[in-house]
């Protein structure tokens, strides 16, 4: 994983774990790596991973089972809410970027429709 120097590392790791969950690579109830394992894998300070996990627990995305480790929440509604929030963020940035390029709402819709139809044919 390559980190963006302009965004705190723990936020980037949070986003990565959330994406793994909403895409199904990490499923409901799956065990996540330990602080030490993830810190070693990413070559970062364990305190950064600890903060990441604490924030994800605070958000209800991960849960700790005493003596067993951390797991992805089993609350399907929480995962669906997470997916919805992530999609809103993507759309907001996409639309803002398109508007900054001077595209109207109709042009944006048309370009998205064209892009989707090309994707279906591929």
UniProtKB/TrEMBL annotation:
Q: Which PROSITE patterns match?
A: HTH_GNTR
Residue intervals of the HTH gntR-type domain? 7-75
Ordered alphabetically, the record's keywords are: DNA-binding, Transcription, Transcription regulation
Question: Is Cell cycle tagged as a keyword?
Answer: no
Q: Does the keyword Ribosomal protein apply?
A: no
Please identify the protein, giving its name as recorded.
GntR family transcriptional regulator
Source organism of this protein record: Ectobacillus antri
